[in-house]
């Protein structure tokens, strides 16, 4: 694993401490890893469900339906 540093409000830290002392997580790092993992999964599946069709290939494009049901195509620039 890679070590990172983040600044969070004191109230978040207090809540993390309460989760650890309450036995919900073994330590703060595990609580934060769980929160990040859950956030990434939720955002990934939300984004995936908003795109009816995704195409990455030789053309390097993304294609999806917008809110009006029209197809939108974007070229991916690396």
Structure overview:
With 78 residues, the chain is an alpha+beta fold. It has one domain. It has 2 helices and 2 strands. Strands 1-2 form a two-stranded antiparallel ribbon. The mean pLDDT is 81. It holds the Pfam family RHH_1. InterPro entries: Arc_rbn_hlx_hlx, CopG, Ribbon_hlx_hlx.
Write the layout of secondary structure elements.
Layout lengths: L9 H12 L6 H23 L10 E5 L5 E5 L3
Antiparallel strand pairs: 1-2
Key phrases:
78 residues, alpha+beta, 2 helices, 45% helix, 13% strand
Provide the gyration radius in Å: 19 Å
Taken together, the total number of domains comes to 1
Overall mean pLDDT stands at 81
Query: How many strands, which pairing sense, and closed or not: the largest β-sheet?
Result: 2 strands, antiparallel
General shape: elongated
Distance between the termini: 26 Å
InterPro entries: Arc_rbn_hlx_hlx, CopG, Ribbon_hlx_hlx
Protein name: Ribbon-helix-helix protein CopG domain-containing protein
Pfam families: RHH_1
GO biological process, one term: regulation of DNA-templated transcription
Quick overview of this protein structure:
This protein is α+β, with helices and mostly antiparallel strands and 78 residues long. 45% of the residues lie in helices and 13% in strands. A two-stranded antiparallel sheet has the order 1-2.
